[in-house]
Each structure stands twice: as C-alpha cells, then as structure tokens.
C-alpha cells in the first residue's frame, strides 16, 4: 500500500505538502535510485575486498585489519546484492497492490537484511577497536618494524569505518525526519 493511501485510509486529513512528500518518498522507494545508491556503496565494498586480499599480511601492528577489510567487503557486497534484488522484486512484482504476492519473499529478504546488518554493525565495532587502538602507534615507513601497517590498508579500513558511522548517522536523521512527518500528519 502506498504511503498517501495509508494516510487517507486512516481518515486523516493530509496537507498538500505531506501528500507531496509521501508521494516523493514512494517514488524514491520504488525507483531506480535504490539500485544506483547500492551500486555506489558496493564499489566501496569491492575496493575494501581487493585491498584486503592484495595487502594481506602487510599490517603486523594489527593482523586483523586486512582480514577486517576482506570480511567487510564480502558482507557489504552480499548486503548490497540482496538489497538490489529486493528493490527489483518490489518494482517488478509489487507495483500494484493486487500483484503483491511477492510480499512474503520481500519480508524474508528484509529479515536477512536485518541479520546481515546486525553482523555488519558488530563487525564495524570490532574494526573500530582494531583500527583506532593502534592509531597513535602505527607507522607507514619501515615494513620490518612491529608497529608497521601498509598505509593503504590502514587508511582504507579507517575510511570504511568512518563511512559506516556517517551512513548510520544519516539513516538515523532520516528516520527521525520520517517520524516527525508522521507526527505532524497525525496532529492535522
């Protein structure tokens, strides 16, 4: 059911702005933007995976950093692929309410996404511990030293973790805005 129809079916009056926002959110949700965003995010996962594989063993200060990149890249690619697949299923099978028999498939995919997200979040915390605890001691010039880490490996892990924190912050802000919109519509 589309968001404007939900608002109307509950006997709520919607302002033109709220109806317009709801319509635009539906277009974004059902559109190709999801696929484009996930494709861009998957490029980060691919880069992390490649760097982790190529530079394995080049970070003696914390051997888990290249491994973290490999698992981050693998899980990130799987998550993006599942999300893209769900968007394609939603756009092709659920564009009209009477054709929404794929809802069970969609909900199953959503449950898998949630499980992968919980793992991804836990893995981000582990990576944060491994990367940030050696931040002040790591050096990039002498590979034979115990506190060496290849610069690309360390900076890639550092950047991926900061990107994850940024995406989580953005998602929380968007969620708060959506809840605020619903509250405003409830008052009217």
TrEMBL record:
> Where are its TM segments located?
27-54, 66-89, 110-132, 152-182
Q: Which domain of life is it from?
A: Eukaryota
InterPro entries associated with the record: TMEM272 (IPR040350)
The record's keywords, sorted A to Z, are:
Membrane, Transmembrane, Transmembrane helix
Instruction: Give the PANTHER family listed for this entry.
Output: MARVEL DOMAIN-CONTAINING PROTEIN, SI:DKEY-19B23.12-RELATED
Stated name of the protein: Uncharacterized protein
């Amino acid at each position: 059911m589309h968001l404007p129809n939900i608002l109307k079916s509950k006997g709520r009056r919607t302002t033109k702005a709220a109806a317009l926002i709801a319509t635009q959110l539906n277009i974004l949700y059902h559109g190709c933007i999801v696929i484009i965003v996930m494709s861009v995010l998957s490029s980060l996962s691919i880069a992390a995976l490649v760097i982790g594989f190529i530079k394995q063993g080049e970070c003696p200060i914390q051997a888990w950093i290249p491994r973290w990149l490999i698992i981050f890249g693998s899980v990130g690619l799987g998550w993006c692929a599942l999300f893209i697949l769900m968007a394609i299923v939603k756009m092709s099978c659920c564009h009209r309410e009477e054709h929404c028999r794929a809802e069970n498939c969609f909900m199953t995919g959503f449950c898998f996404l949630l499980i992968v997200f919980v793992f991804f979040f836990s893995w981000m915390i582990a990576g944060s511990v491994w990367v940030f605890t050696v931040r002040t001691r790591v050096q990039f010039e002498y590979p034979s030293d115990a506190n060496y880490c290849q610069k690309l490996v360390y900076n890639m892990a550092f950047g991926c973790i900061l990107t994850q924190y940024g995406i989580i912050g953005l998602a929380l802000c968007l969620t708060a805005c959506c809840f605020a919109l619903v509250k405003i519509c409830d008052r009217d």
